[in-house]
Amino acid sequence: MSLLNETHAPELRSWVASANEPGTDFPIQNLPFAVFRRAGTEEFFRGGVAIGDQIVDLGMAASRGALSIDALPFAAACGASSLNRFMAMGPGAWSKLRLALSRALRTGAPERELLGACLVPQSQAEYTVPAKIGDYTDFYTSIHHATSVGKLFRPDSPLMPNYKWVPIGYHGRASSIQVSGQEFRRPLGQTMAPGKTQPDFGPCQRLDYELELGIYVGTGNESCTSVPMDQAESHVFGLCLLNDWSARDVQAWEYQPLGPFLSKNFATTVSPWIVTLEALAPYRVPFARPEGDPQPLPYLDSAANRAGGAFDVQLQVLLETERMRAAGAGPAQLSATSYRHAYWTVAQLLAHHTVGGCNLQPGDLFGSGTLSGPTPDQAGALIELTSGGKEPLRLPDGDTRSYLVDGDTVIMRGWCEQAGSARIGFGECRGTVLPAMEA
Ligand code: MN
């Protein structure tokens, strides 16, 4: 488990002035990773770390010797077009590079001149998916989401009897995961309207988003081995924001008996920045089960997990419609919640994923599942906020939404904030719905 160290000290300041501004997502205590290049150029994509409104070009920092010597091989590994090699180096490497960056970016650091020449403004950057994602697994860790969606799909048995015992998930599609800014066409598919005997084929009529966190695997495990709870977090590189776009009408018809398929495989959007578990250390909270619920089986339990296996990440979903854009109005908030309400922790997901001998690889991605909180206004998807489309949301300009319409942009934000710690943020995860292809 990551503990607090000198890199978390809330009083640290950087010689990058924008990193010291209150409310910035990227103070010196955060140092999240992305893969970027200057927008509109043919430059190679390469790894970088956010500081204020700048990006440290890590490969350049390595080649110019702008960091302490023991961290240079790790910075050099980040110079590649994906972070997989750095992820595979393990938590010792991640931590050494973080410490070297923290020291070199502090006010008064002698590296200022050399490292200052390795900065690229975020306003000039474009990003790509930061890892080559071999496999993507989407979980279902909010009991509040599982219960309210279950009520809509199966009023007689909303929460399946397995839910409180086994972390539910399905193997998703990696090829359609793109970085924030993704634009995708409304999917086509089969739907079965109530009372009909034959399905229709055409554009999805119930397009939804899902507010999730993504979990990047750092180091993998050999096949036919499992990762015990006490080691699970050392295999996790960090977290990002994730939008699991969902075609609800397609999902309702196809999901039994093997689970979601085309309703989920057309697009998934991730934020460019990965916030490391080490950066999140101040925001750990205890994992506890509500009274009367079963305790996890021993392979999903550990003292460290009970003490601090959950994370208090504040999450927010906003909608920007074409009408809002035309009026120059800002986006409207649809809901807000925290990751602390999840029923299973990061460590439990990784331990469970491997318990049967499944090998994980560096860069594999887990989705947390829709992160709905306990109250209705904390719901992480429209299907819940509108009670299955029956109670449309009223937007500030008088417009209404049951589900997403063409031109809608969904924006997700995440951050951690508490007295006595530096506020850190995840940046943004943004995606836009385009009209469907011809049926
Ligand atoms: Mn999902």
Distance between the termini: 51 Å
CATH topology of the largest domain: Fumarylacetoacetate hydrolase, domain 2
Mean pLDDT across every amino acid position: 97
User: Structural class, judged by helices and strands?
Assistant: alpha+beta
Specify the number of helices: 12
Task: Give the C-alpha Rg.
Answer: 22 Å
Q: What is the strand content? A: 25-35%
Domain count: the total is 2
Q: Class of the largest domain in CATH?
A: Alpha Beta
Q: Outline the biggest β-sheet.
A: 8 strands, mixed
The oligomerization state is: single chain
Helix content range of the residues, please?
10-25%
Structure description:
This protein has 439 residues and is of the alpha+beta class. The chain has 2 domains: 6-128, Fumarylacetoacetase, N-terminal domain (SH3 type barrels, Roll), CATH 2.30.30; 136-434, Fumarylacetoacetase-like, C-terminal domain (Fumarylacetoacetate hydrolase, domain 2, Alpha-Beta Complex). It is built from 12 helices and 26 strands. The protein has helices at 58-63, 72-77, 84-88, 91-105, 112-116, 143-153, 229-232, 248-254, 303-308, 322-327, 346-354, 382-385, and strands spanning 33-38, 46-51, 54-57, 119-121, 125-128, 136-139, 169-171, 177-179, 182-185, 188-191, 200-203, 207-208, 211-217, 236-243, 246-247, 268-270, 275-276, 284-285, 310-311, 314-320, 332-338, 365-367, 393-394, 400-401, 409-416, 424-434. Strands 6, 7, 8, 13, 14, 16, 17 and 22 form an 8-stranded mixed β-sheet that branches. A hairpin with a 2-residue loop joins β2 (46-51) and β3 (54-57). The radius of gyration is 22 Å and the shape is globular. The mean pLDDT is 97. The structure holds manganese (II) ion.
